[in-house]
């Protein structure tokens, strides 16, 4: 009997999102998206309806996504560097507002469609497989103003039209798709995850779960359309994963940790198993949440489940029922967690737990029995240039090395993993802070938090390291 190793066609690569790299935020007909209104730093969230309704672009305002790292114009140079590292795959997202600037337009914007055609052609030139996210945190602003974004059922139709448009256009270029990035983020950062802004008299939970239902139906419709249009399409869901550990063996702690994980699993249970789980129905009933579900919805959810489970993993989480223990919360991460005394944390307070990666992968595979795709993992850190203008990011290598080793362990456990795209292979704007100083890349970008710098690209120490990981198919880390 042979123990599993990294399969021959394992999809090594990197992952980015349109709004964190492209810039060119109003170029070639693109409409405004929710992210375009988010500043850098402490005042990033929350965002009020007034801002969305009254926003007009101002010359002297600085919003990180407006120029980002200018991938819109520099994608050729960047893709050439990814190819040099030996990437087999590259995960990127399409900006909905480049294709339908307002979200509800009758006709798509040809310049936007052409842009992604060019990017996919460039990837194809090097034999790099694109993995494309349909929605990565950017909702066209017009949909928020006019319809309340995902609160409104109509947005499901607009999304379906968008999905069909891009499937049709790129059917010969893209096989791997993901529907909603970190779909469970909707419950933690509702504006980021779903463009939700609450009115004073609204019941937040009711609104969030109704919006979640709409995204789940939209995701099923995308799976349906994707398979109809692209016969060999592989369409996945995407979860912000990371197991929650109980702080003690007190059954109350175990129950709480399980409930916390289920807040996230809820989405994937629907997307992968095709129905609302019993614990969710109970939660809705006990919290007076009543979902408007249309007659065909349940059948759609049942029939059009995902082909694979995409997930991001940065940290594990921990919880307790003891009020004293609960006081020690980790900083920085949007997911609630107490500090785990056995583990270190990143400069932003994100717990570092490579073994938790193996455990999480096992947990997901045990639950869904579908191929897993690790579509995000990495370390956000401050990089300092030394006198020779180089970055010796051995801390990043250490983080990735331990995680890749644990992924290898999960494979040996029998978990089926088809690929690994580390987050931000080139430095990009951070999603949670809007900063440039939180970097993940193998490639350094000369750009600071205020938008200054030449935007030039250079290799960090981790560049050659990752190259050799890919070359040796995970043997040599
Ligand atoms: C995930 C998002 C990404 C991303 C990453 C790192 O939640 O899908 O868009 O940026 O986390 O987070 P951050 O940029 O806040 O460090």
UniProtKB/TrEMBL annotation:
The keyword Transmembrane helix does not apply. It comes from the Bacteria. It is an enzyme of class 3 (hydrolase). GO terms for cellular component: cytosol. Its EC number is 3.2.1.86. The active site is at 376 (nucleophile). InterPro entries: GH, GH_1_N_CS, Glyco_hydro_1, Glyco_hydro_1_AS. Keywords: Glycosidase, Hydrolase. It holds the Pfam family Glyco_hydro_1. GO terms for biological process: carbohydrate catabolic process. GO terms for molecular function: 6-phospho-beta-glucosidase activity. Belongs to the glycosyl hydrolase 1 family. This is 6-phospho-beta-glucosidase. It comes from Gracilibacillus salitolerans.
């Amino acid at each position: 009997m042979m123990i599993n190793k990294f399969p021959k066609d394992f999809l090594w690569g990197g992952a980015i999102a349109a709004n964190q790299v492209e810039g060119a935020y109003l170029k070639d007909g693109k409409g405004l998206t929710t992210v375009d209104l988010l500043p850098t730093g402490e005042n990033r969230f929350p965002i009020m309806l007034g801002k969305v309704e009254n926003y007009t672009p101002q010359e002297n305002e600085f919003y990180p996504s407006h120029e980002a790292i200018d991938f819109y114009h520099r994608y050729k140079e960047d893709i050439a560097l990814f190819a040099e590292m030996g990437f087999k795959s590259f995960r990127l997202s399409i900006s909905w507002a480049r294709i339908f600037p307002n979200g509800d337009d009758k006709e798509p914007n040809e310049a936007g469609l052409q842009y992604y055609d060019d990017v996919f052609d460039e990837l194809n030139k090097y034999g790099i497989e694109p993995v494309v996210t349909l929605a990565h945190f950017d909702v066209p602003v017009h949909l928020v103003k006019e319809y309340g974004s995902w609160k409104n059922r109509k947005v499901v139709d607009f999304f379906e039209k968008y999905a069909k448009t891009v499937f049709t256009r790129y059917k010969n270029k893209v096989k791997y798709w993901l529907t909603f990035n970190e779909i469970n983020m909707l419950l933690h950062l509702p504006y980021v995850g779903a463009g939700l802004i609450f009115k004073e008299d609204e019941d937040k939970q009711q609104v969030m779960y109704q919006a979640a239902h709409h995204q789940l139906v939209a995701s099923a419709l995308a799976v349906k359309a994707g398979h109809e249009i692209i016969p060999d399409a592989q369409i996945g869901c995407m979860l912000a994963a990371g197991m929650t550990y109980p702080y003690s063996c007190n059954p109350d702690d175990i129950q709480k940790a399980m409930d916390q994980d289920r807040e996230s699993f809820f989405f994937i249970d629907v997307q992968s198993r095709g129905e609302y789980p019993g614990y969710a129905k109970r939660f809705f009933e006990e919290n007076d949440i009543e979902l408007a579900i249309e007659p065909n919805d349940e059948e759609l959810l049942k029939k059009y489940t995902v082909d694979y489970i995409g997930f991001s993993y940065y940290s594990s989480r921990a919880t307790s029922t003891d009020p004293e223990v609960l006081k020690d919360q980790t900083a920085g991460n949007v997911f609630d967690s107490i500090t785990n005394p056995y583990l270190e944390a990143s400069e932003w307070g994100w717990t570092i737990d490579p073994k938790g990666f193996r455990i999480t992968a096992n947990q997901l595979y045990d639950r869904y029995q579908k191929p897993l795709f690790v579509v995000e993992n990495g370390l956000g850190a401050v990089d300092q240039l030394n006198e020779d203008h180089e970055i010796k990011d051995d801390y990043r290598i250490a983080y990735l090395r331990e995680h890749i080793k644990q992924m290898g362990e999960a494979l040996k456990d029998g978990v089926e993993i088809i690929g690994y795209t580390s987050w931000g292979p080139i430095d990009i704007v951070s999603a949670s802070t809007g900063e440039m100083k939180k970097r993940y890349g193998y490639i350094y970008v000369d750009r600071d938090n205020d938008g200054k710098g030449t935007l030039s690209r250079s290799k960090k120490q981790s560049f050659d390291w990752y190259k050799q990981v890919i070359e040796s198919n995970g043997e040599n880390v």
